[in-house]
Amino acid sequence: MDEQDVVRQAHSFLNGLDLSNIRDDLGPYLAKVAARVRKENLLPRESGTVAEIKGKTVITVNENESDERQRFTICHELGHKILGLPSSHQHVPQWGYAKRDSNEVFCDIFAAELLMPHEQFKQAARHLEPSLRTIETLMDAFKTSFPATASRFARLADSPCVFVTMESGWVKYAAFSTPLRAMGAKITFKSPIPTESIAAQLRASGSSDYREGYVAQDVWLENWQSGLELNELSRHHASSDITLSLLWFDPEDAPKIEVDRYGRVVAEDDGLQELTGELPWPGSSKRKR
Q: When comparing pLDDT for 101 and 29, which is higher?
């Protein structure tokens, strides 16, 4: 199973359901699998579980967590059931990727598809430019958290955009928009947060806060053209040492590059070399006949 398999199964699950009030009522999802939700006073950072009890599916959520987190947990646990993936819950923050089992990451992706259905989200985000206000508007529209919303926005954006998750000062995950991926953009995983980034500055301050500014595009993007600006909106959680960054640039600030079908950058043709009067052969190498 891979990410695309998860997305396809999520879309299949949503097919035919009434999603008009899904922001306030997850009932259609629960009804489809005959599941019910039980709220309990669970341990801190223990979000929930799914179990079969007397032939019925019961999803238990932590009543002490926010409504947004409880909704995410419900859809995450539905992911375990629909995808047939066993749970491997650990005490790690939501949208944390370090040391997480792939089953948990897949169920996070499944949950995002249910909470922010593709067509509804695309319509809501249409014509919206990347910004903190945009993310907050979409958070309110879908009753979702900042990381879930920003990651979803980056994936579906029509402009060059990427959402980066960092833990303990290291880059762990990045969600690219299709336009940026088509340009051959790459961010090195399992590497330290770039020292010149807003994310690094915010983390160094030790405060849980937002910060926005401009950095050079090649601060984040691997083997990238220099001299171009990138917008960076970062958020840091000091207690969990998780840093999140939404990165984007306007299309007119895009580098003039071309990539082939394998995502490799195609070198520009500089034309014929200037004539010098010296013949380029035979040279030092010998061609075998």
A: 29
Q: Is 207 in contact with 238 (CB distance < 8 Å)?
A: yes
- Would you tell me which CATH number, out of the four given (1.10.260, 1.25.40, 3.30.70, 3.30.450), belongs to the domain 123-266? 3.30.450
What are the residue boundaries of the structural domains of the chain, listed by start? Answer: 3-115, 123-266
Return the amino acid letter for 276: T
CA distance 126 to 178: 15
Round to whole Å and give the CA distance between 31 and 21.
14
Q: How far, in Å, CA of 155 to CA of 267, rounded?
A: 27
3-115 folds as Arc Repressor Mutant, subunit A (1.10.10)
Q: State the average pLDDT over residues 113-126.
A: 94
Check pLDDT > 50 for residue 98: no
Percentage of the chain beyond pLDDT 70 is 84
Query: Is the pTM above the cut of 0.85?
Result: no
